Inverse folding.
C-alpha cells in the first residue's frame, strides 16, 4: 500500500513537471526531430552536401588562422544572429510557428553536419566532432532551446491578448522583462563561444583534412 502511494506521488510529480515545462519540452522535441531529419536527408540533396562542404572549409580555415579572441568573438556574433531571429519571432503572433521551425532548422543543421563528418571523414570525423564541434555546439543548442521557450511563451501570451475578454497587463513591463531575460540568455551563450575558441586553439592542430 505504501509503495502504491509512493508510485502515485511520483507519477503526480512527473505530470506536474511535464505540465510546468511543456513549452521547453516542445522546443526540445523540435530540436531532436530536426537532428533526426538532418541525419537522414543530408546525403539526399546535393545542395546540402555542397553547403556542408563549404561550411566546414570555412569553419576550419577560420580556426586555423585565427587567435583565441578572434575565434571566440566570431563564434559568438554568429550565434547572436539566431538569438536575434528567435527574439523577433517572439514579438510576433507568428512566433508560435516560426520559433519551433527555427529550432527544427537548428537541429537539422547540426544533425546533417554530424552525418557529413562521419560519412566524409569516418573515424577522423567522429574524433573531430567529439573534440572540436560537439562541445560548443551542445552548449549553444541548450541556450537556444531555452531562448526558444522564452520566445514561444511570449508569442503565446501576445496571442492570448488578442482574444475577447482577455486581461491586459502592463505590456511595456512584460516586454521589458522578456527583453532582459533574452539578453541575459544571449550573453550567457558566450560560454559556448569560449569553448569553441579553446578547443580550436588547443586541439585543431591535431587534425589534418
Amino acid at each position: 500500500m505504501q509503495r502504491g502511494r509512493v508510485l502515485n506521488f511520483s507519477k503526480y510529480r512527473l505530470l506536474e513537471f511535464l505540465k510546468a515545462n511543456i513549452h521547453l519540452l516542445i522546443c526540445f522535441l523540435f530540436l531532436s526531430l530536426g537532428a533526426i531529419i538532418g541525419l537522414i536527408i543530408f546525403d539526399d540533396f546535393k545542395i546540402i552536401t555542397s553547403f556542408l562542404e563549404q561550411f566546414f572549409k570555412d569553419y576550419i580555415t577560420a580556426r586555423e588562422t585565427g587567435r583565441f579572441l578572434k575565434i571566440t568573438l566570431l563564434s559568438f556574433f554568429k550565434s547572436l544572429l539566431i538569438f536575434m531571429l528567435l527574439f523577433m519571432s517572439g514579438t510576433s503572433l507568428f512566433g508560435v510557428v516560426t520559433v519551433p521551425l527555427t529550432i527544427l532548422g537548428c537541429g537539422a543543421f547540426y544533425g546533417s553536419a554530424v552525418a557529413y563528418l562521419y560519412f566524409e571523414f569516418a573515424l577522423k570525423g567522429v574524433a573531430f566532432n567529439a573534440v572540436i564541434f560537439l562541445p560548443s555546439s551542445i552548449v549553444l543548442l541548450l541556450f537556444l532551446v531555452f531562448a526558444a521557450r522564452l520566445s514561444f511563451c511570449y508569442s503565446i501570451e501576445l496571442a492570448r491578448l488578442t482574444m475577447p475578454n482577455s486581461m491586459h497587463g502592463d505590456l511595456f513591463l512584460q516586454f521589458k522583462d522578456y527583453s532582459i531575460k533574452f539578453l541575459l540568455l544571449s550573453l550567457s551563450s558566450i560560454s559556448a563561444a569560449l569553448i569553441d575558441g579553446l578547443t580550436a586553439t588547443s586541439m585543431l592542430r591535431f587534425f589534418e583534412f
The chain has one domain: 26-206. Residues 64 and 146 are 31 Å apart (CA to CA). The radius of gyration is 20 Å. The longest helix spans residues 95-161.
